[in-house]
Design brief:
heterotetramer, A: alpha/beta, Aspartate Aminotransferase, domain 2, Aspartate Aminotransferase, domain 1, seven-stranded mixed beta sheet, four-stranded antiparallel beta sheet, B: alpha+beta, Sufe protein. Chain: A, three-stranded antiparallel beta sheet, globular
Chain lengths: 415, 138, 415, 138
């Protein structure tokens, strides 16, 4: 937490009232939504703002000279400024809007990787990564003849930084890709330390902050990274919007990714030149309303206070781990609460995670079951899947109690 | 308790029928559900036009494994032509729980049937019917 | 028009009532919105549907076992089926949701082009293309060592198919990329003829239908194309959604584009395999609500009737061209109304297009001025820019009158 | 009639001041507005610390060309240091029409000033100030 004083507690009932989904009943009960790490619910502030935008300010951006175009451009560029402030970035030139978190990472893999990588180079990802920060690097390494290396973890699911020495012997380290918080088991990775190690080797660091940005205050300078990716739909924003932050010098020097309208300076049969930042990386009509909606979500989060959200989730995580420790046959994966985000992944000896999630659903408890797009991590633990509960600002201890009650139901069926 | 887990399902899950592997075998295929990692492998022997023997192994959720077990009982002794035509609905009826609304679970339930179709398709060189298009890409 | 009988006229006042933006006043007047080729306005049906979706059915898709996840997946996949029907495609496996029209085209350029093209190959685009169907081909040709050829046009802005013979002498034709309707001057291109020519040479045809799909009935089989791209925001849908249709055999055989979650079958340090169609091409969390919104827009368009929309726009185009022919100093670019969509681009001798658009704005008339992301076409005509009026189902002859009135204002200032 | 086109703008547009090219010249730069194809090219001569002569050529909308013409009058005779510091606001005040709400037109209005800054930056080897970051990428 970035402040010295303990943040004051959230007024969760008031927050829940902002989210229409909690007014509905599922199997007769209020929804215990414990799947925000997958995608979050949306507050009225965002939904109403979106409708209003479409009704009164919608047109394409940048190109239009008329009044609606001015409003739309101001809304879109205003959102970019909000994201800049959120990340503590120097300039809106460093903020690129993408389709989702995955595309932000692919942008770097393609635009930087395809041109920069070659035989003898090593690209590093980790065993804990989401596939979206693993497969792009594996793929461009293969395409370019570079080597792909996977940094491993220990039994608790914490990265084993000592392996970096061995990896370094395999070639010239060019880039290290790692997440700030693991989406499948919740580990908070030592990003600053890894970025410093990479910088010493003149390698770039790409940080996947998709699971961190919704839940804690970030500052790109402090992270020491070169690129940071986030995604809107996990942080109260609409689907269809992601963000890549990158250091200006790097983005300026890079080849473009998607090609087409808006990202060019001039086009002719012989030669085409690129537009300035960030437009160079935003080909075609951008996700206009989605960027605006993400800006509204940032307002909402900032208003509640990311420090307070982090503290609230930490409290729920501690409570959930205590409770799960008492549940028969349940094993929780991953590190202790001090080094984890608001994510608790577990297995239960009598039932497959999918069946667990199904029975929890019949109790009005929504969790995710599966490999969470982290198959290497699952393989590391020697399991095909887990059941995962994840917390956000609208969750309560009662939601955790509902989870435990549902697990008792699982045991009743399968035990 | 969830409707999905009625007695019969749990029985097949805990006591799978025709579990195992035929070696040698006349037809074989394997399939996964990329969503949840369910995995089913099926071996068959033919005798004339009939599927004389069929066995499965696999791992995954109760629905996928119970469905595979039930499918064994449905298929064994049928003609190859009958099995090739066996509609999804027949297996779903057998399972007897409401899955239509849930495409994720539907994939679990139908995994083994897809694997059987794929095994026949490979052994006999027939085309995979349109409704299973893409199955071999798994 | 696909039916033999003349379609009945649209009830435009009723249609306008569905679009909240027309309730507002601009400089004291109702908005004469003549910029739908840039991006269309949105009907209440789409906006209300979006809000309702977020309120009652939002979660991530495919992965979730719980009730909300079922609803979201049904909504998302339901939209895919609606688009399939709209295009007359064989299977939803052939419908890929993208970020916008530009990304649909880049998907083919990267996933097919980077692996398939090499020295001796020729990729053809046209002088009339939008940059989004020009620059990707130019770029992958350059990256792969293939040759990039630009098919030219005549003085009226109609493609000069005779040039294909000369182009063919330059190497092995692998792919022809062309639009169905030019966004900058409105030409309807002879796509079926070009596709047949390409097929004879075992070359692929990529059709940019971004300006056609909103305005007329399409059928991918009739077009004879291998890939067709469209974009949601020009056809009453939300921003942030595009569509690529591709022939199943081609999509199956192709390498993926963006890499990451959802598009994989299995991932490990050594080897990663791809998911089945269409998921293989939809990496990460897709534009869920945006796809659903596009489905609602398709419902709305189908309900009104694309034949009737086409006839209505044709009527406005004929009227506008008649009126503009009487306006002093105005020259309209492009072919006669029989071979154009609802787009009228012009220059006026006394003023720059940007100044024209600005003065029109002060009359409450919204048009676009610029090169319309078609610099090669502008160069062809020897001009830097045009002023463009484009029509849609909510436009009226009165909007055209307002345009003419505004042009009189331009002459008063600059004449 | 639009507020944007008051008499003074139209006068500068129709009768541009300092139109032309200095050859030889001490500093030169060119810039485009990728949005609308506006194009401005500027040449300057220095005498001691002063910008003694400045000329422009270009094509584009009335705003961009009138602004360039007005800028010539603002710059000529100023010291290089003064021009390097010349704030956007000073040119916008001169133009005197409300543009702040319209970023597209603002780019037209400020194109020539960016080109002047770029020319100075290149001739004197000074850094382009942060608010013009990216201008040279055009
Ligand atoms: C003909 C044409 N092709 C492609 C595009 C690109 O579509 P989008 O802006 O949705 O990427 C457009 C619109 O901008 C267009 O008019
Ligand atoms: C850690 C992590 N990285 C990347 C992603 C991909 O983000 P998106 O699904 O928005 O592409 C996710 C979420 O799915 C994630 O949890």
């Amino acid at each position: 937490m970035s402040s010295l004083t303990t943040p004051t507690a959230l007024d969760v009932p008031r927050i829940r009232a902002d989210f229409p989904v909690f007014e509905e009943r599922f199997n007769g009960r209020e929804l215990a939504f414990l799947d925000s790490a997958n995608s979050s619910q949306k507050p009225r502030h965002v939904l109403e703002g979106l409708t209003e935008f479409y009704e009164h300010s919608y047109s394409n951006v940048h190109r239009a000279v008329y009044e609606l175009g001015e409003r739309a451009t101001a809304a879109y560029e205003g959102a970019r400024e909000k994201v800049r402030v959120l990340l503590g970035a120097d300039s809106t030139r460093e903020i690129v809007f993408t389709r989702n978190g995955t595309e932000a990472l692919n942008l770097v893999a393609y635009a930087w990787g395809l041109s920069e990588l070659g035989p003898g180079d090593v690209v590093v990802s980790t065993v804990l990564e989401h596939h979206s920060n693993f497969v792009p690097w594996q793929y461009v390494a293969k395409r370019s003849g570079a080597e792909f290396a996977m940094l491993g973890a220990d039994a608790a699911g914490e990265l084993d930084l000592e392996q970096l020495d061995e990896i370094e012997r395999r070639g010239r380290i060019r880039l290290v890709a790692l997440g700030l918080i693991s989406n499948s088991i919740g580990t908070v990775n030592p990003v600053e330390e890894v970025a410093a190690w990479a910088r010493e080797r003149e390698a770039l660091t790409v940080v996947d902050a998709c699971q961190a940005a919704p839940h804690r205050q970030l500052d790109v300078a402090t992270l020491g990274a070169d690129f940071v990716a986030l995604t809107g739909h996990k942080m109260l924003g609409p689907s269809g919007i992601g963000v890549l932050w990158g250091r200006q010098e790097l983005l300026s020097a890079m080849e473009p990714f998607n090609l087409g309208g808006e990202m060019i300076r001039s086009v002719s049969e012989r030669e085409t030149t690129w537009n300035e930042l960030p437009n160079k990386f935003e080909a075609g009509t951008p996700p206009i309303a989605q960027a605006y909606g993400l800006g509204l979500a940032v307002d909402y989060l900032t208003n509640v206070g990311l420090d307070r959200i982090e503290a609230h989730e930490h409290d729920l995580t501690v409570y959930a781990m205590e409770q799960l420790a008492t549940a028969e046959g349940v094993s929780v994966l991953g590190p202790p609460p001090e080094r984890r985000g608001g994510i608790v992944s577990f297995t239960i000896d009598c039932a497959h995670p999918h069946d667990v999630a199904q029975i929890l659903d019949s109790h009005g408890v929504a969790v995710r079951a599966g490999h969470h797009c982290t198959q290497p991590a699952m393989e590391h633990f020697g399991i095909p899947a887990t059941t995962r509960a994840s917390f956000y600002l609208y969750n309560t201890r009662e939601d955790v109690d509902r989870l435990l009650e549902g697990l008792a139901g699982v045991r009743a069926t399968f035990g | 308790m969830s409707d999905l887990y009625r007695e019969l399902i749990l029985d097949h899950y805990k006591n799978p029928r025709n579990h195992g592997e035929l070696d040698p075998c006349d037809a074989h295929a394997q399939g996964q559900n990329p969503l949840c990692g369910d995995d089913v492998s099926i071996t068959m022997n033919f005798s004339g036009d009939d599927v004389s023997e069929i066995r499965f192994t696999g791992r995954g959720c109760a629905i996928s494994q119970a469905a595979a077990s039930m499918l064994m009982e449905l298929v064994e002794g049928k003609t190859v032509a009958e099995v090739a035509e066996l509609p999804k609905e027949e297996l779903l009826d057998e399972i007897g729980v409401p899955l239509a609304k849930n495409p994720a679970r539907l994939k679990c339930a139908l995994l083994s049937l897809g694997v059987v179709k794929l095994a026949l398709h490979r052994a006999r060189g027939t085309a995979l019917p349109e409704e299973w298009a893409g199955f071999e890409e798994r």
